[in-house]
Amino acid sequence: MLIVKKFGGTSVANAERILNVANRLVESYKEGNKIVVVLSAQGDTTDDLIKKANEINSNASKREMDMLLSTGEQQSVALMAMAIQKLGYPAVSLNAFQCDIYSNSTYGNARIKSISTERISEELDKNNIVIITGFQGINRGGNVTTLGRGGSDTSAVALAAILNADLCEIYTDVDGVYTSDPRIVKKARKLSEISYDEMLELASLGAKVLHNRSVELAKKYNVNLVVRSSLTREEGTIVKEESTVEKMLVNGVAVDKDISRIALVGLKDQPGIAFNVFSLLAKNKISVDIILQSIGREDKKDISFTVSTADLNPALEVIEKNKNRFNYEKLLHDDKVAKVSIVGAGMATNSGVASTMFEALYDENINIKMISTSEIKISVLVTEKDAERAANAIHEKFRLDEIK
Ligand code: ASP
Ligand code: MG
User: Fold this and answer.
1) What's the chain's average pLDDT?
2) Is 41 in the pocket of ligand 1 (CB under 6 A)?
3) Domains and CATH numbers, the chain
């Protein structure tokens, strides 16, 4: 089998962990597999490099930031090759330049455009374990780029897709994807499998197990993806097109506390207002999540929406600057809100899921401020202090702790 195995920063944080991973790689190699390894930077290396840059120039050019940040991954791959060689097995490390991982030019958030498999295949044919830097690419100008925080997952899935690997294993410090964040919901249970679409929803809902774009890529190229722990032997969670078993009604409950609500009260009730507000925000690269417009009264209406808390002040600023265009009476905001969502592929074909969720909240006397739904997701906005209680109540109501 050709297997791409990706190890995250905690899995290679120190010499002991690197040797532990090296041992596991050798084990799989001895079983006759061809192995491509993708690594992240060790532990907090990427954060530390950012700090270092800030000490010198807090406004450093993005090109130089990528030049700096990409070094973290380069350290990891060289160290891993040394560890494997020490165990007496052949290994070679390669960076993005050496295996032509081309990306576009967006420093700090580049997208992979093409990978040449020539060098990798050559090294595999020489029976090497091939260890490749995650997170980095090169652009057409011959500069180093990085793929965005957490981007090594995407490197691994892209490599698995282009190499037509039989399997792509993402090793991390948790042993799989859970029905909810175990720090919030004590009864959260590890899922044996989940669909790409559900995983995408969970990832964007703040379940930080996988880089979002890696799941998009896996779905596009139908990559066999597994999330599992590098520290235990537990079987992980398989991420695939569709559950073999019956589609689960609800597979996960996610909590996102990093959001805020903004309300424009007393807007003129006329065509074009929503378009103007949201195009202004889009132009300023502020993404909006849940939107609610009230029924108009007389000739006025209200629009409220949520943004990530990091975007709250920038959003308020651009709106205030354009007060004359919108003519609202009041601009309100609230950062003490949280979004609680349920995700499940079976939702689309089953009625009653929403009402069960709302009943769980009603039983707990938790007020819902906003609701939004999609095919496989229902989100509600609640007061931040109610969020954890809400997640637990919903988890309980759908009996997510029981293996079905
Ligand atoms: N080292 C990079 C980061 O910390 C990429 C990764 O870990 O996936 O974001
Ligand atoms: Mg990660």
Assistant:
1) 94
2) yes
3) 2-173 (3.40.1160.10)
